[in-house]
Specification:
The protein has 260 residues and is mainly beta. It is built from 5 helices and 21 strands. The chain has helices spanning 16-21, 81-87, 103-109, 121-128, 204-210; strands spanning 3-5, 13-15, 27-33, 48-58, 61-70, 77-79, 90-92, 97-100, 114-117, 131-133, 145-148, 166-169, 174-176, 181-185, 188-191, 196-202, 212-215, 218-219, 228-233, 239-241, 246-254. The protein has a 6-stranded mixed beta sheet. Strands 12-21-16-18 form a 4-stranded antiparallel beta sheet.
């Protein structure tokens, strides 16, 4: 799992999506808590409504850790001050070396002193095959959060600074038959900003030049699986999609959630 030690975090956190993916049991917290950034603004990580107790191994260092369940932007676990105070590891930040040698660790977590090394970020991403794009955001930050499900998939890009949509890329080769349609994978999943849903819209160039349109273009805010695009070919010729091609655009649109 992709974890970070953060002495600026006042709690230990685990990603909500990570818990859901691996069926990690969560417990309703007694009170709902907001998470605040250093500037005092509420963070998109919160609010915290659940906790989770998870067996965690760092090499031969074993413990039962208690986490606050949050929406982490680019990590699966943040080990904050509670964890640091409990284990008091000796850390060489320059080389990413962590030594567990406190009395508590030697009594409860280890049989002998242990040294472990941090894994480079790129290697951690490759091992996990999932990573969310972007930093921890405040509620005022309306960026779409993206999770790579395939390390070779491409993230969303915006062609122009004020463009309404962001480009989605094909993660496979696919032929769209004349007068037919095909489903094309993207290798990513998203979390739209709060109060929005994702709309998949055609790219103007493909629509005008090749008569390629999009069917089934709504991504609900609670949909966490891979985005797959239904491309429809209204021309009389087959159309070839290459891996890495821009195929559609994703637009975050506001939605009013109310019962009829």
């Amino acid at each position: 799992m992709n974890a970070m030690i953060d002495s600026g975090a006042t709690k230990d956190f685990i990603d909500q999506g990570f818990c859901s993916k691996y069926n990690i049991r969560t417990t309703q917290a007694k009170t709902t808590r907001e998470v605040y950034l250093a500037d005092g603004q509420p963070s998109a990580m919160g609010p915290i409504t659940h906790t989770a107790k998870v067996p965690m191994d760092i090499s031969s260092h074993r413990e039962l850790a208690t986490f606050q369940v949050a929406k982490l932007a680019n990590l699966e676990v943040i080990l904050g001050m509670p964890w640091l105070k409990q284990h008091s590891p000796r850390i060489d930040w320059g080389v990413g070396k962590i030594i567990f040698e406190s009395e508590g660790c030697m009594t409860w977590c280890l049989k002998e002193s242990l040294t472990v090394y941090a894994i480079p970020e790129d290697e951690a991403r490759e091992e996990n095959l999932t990573v969310e794009f972007g930093a921890t955001q405040s509620k005022k930050d309306q960026r779409i959060q993206v999770r790579l499900l395939d390390p070779q998939a491409k993230l969303l890009t915006r062609g122009l600074a004020k463009a309404a949509g962001q480009d989605l890329y094909a993660n496979e080769e696919r032929t769209i038959p004349a007068r037919g349609q095909e489903v094309v994978t993207t290798g990513i999943s998203i979390t739209p900003p709060q109060g929005t849903y994702g709309r998949i819209a055609p790219r103007s160039g493909m629509a005008v030049k090749h008569q390629i349109s999009v069917n089934a273009g709504v991504i609900d805010s609670d949909y966490t699986s891979e985005i797959k695009v239904v491309l429809a070919n209204m021309s009389k010729q087959d159309y070839q999609i290459q891996k890495g091609d821009r195929i559609t655009q994703l637009i975050a649109e506001k939605i009013v959630e109310s019962d009829c």
